[in-house]
Amino acid sequence: MNIQKxxxxxxxxxxxxxxxxxxxxxxxxxxxxKMAALQGDYGVVSPFITLALxxxxxxxxxxxxxxxxxxxxxxxxxxxxxxxxxxxxxxLLVAFFLSEGVETPMKDGEVLSAFGSRCVETGxxxxxxxxxxxxxxxxxxxxKKLIKK
Length: 149
Fold this sequence. Notes:
The chain has helices spanning 3-28, 30-38, 46-73, 75-98, 114-148; strands at residues 104-105, 111-112.
């Protein structure tokens, strides 16, 4: 049996199970679900959420496995992926070293540590750097195409 048939059967089983759970939720009704949730009973919705999480985990694992297998079978793709990961790590390091952390009081009375604050700032700086890099690469590509014509 090939992988496509197995995938089709597993997808069909999950689809039917999802439909059964959906009909259970629809038959229960919004008001009953809300009243049960107020009392801490999520019995009707919980299986649906659990199914969604199981499917998510399976999809992530299958995607990772096939991506890694594809990279392992093509050395040139592995090299490009390694370079990309290295460049991303460099952007993260630059953002981390440019960031500074300050203990910050939060609304719930907790205090965000200096390192936590630095990590948040690193994430924001990384986002801004990647936006600038993306815009720059699009502009460079557009100018390069105009020059070729």
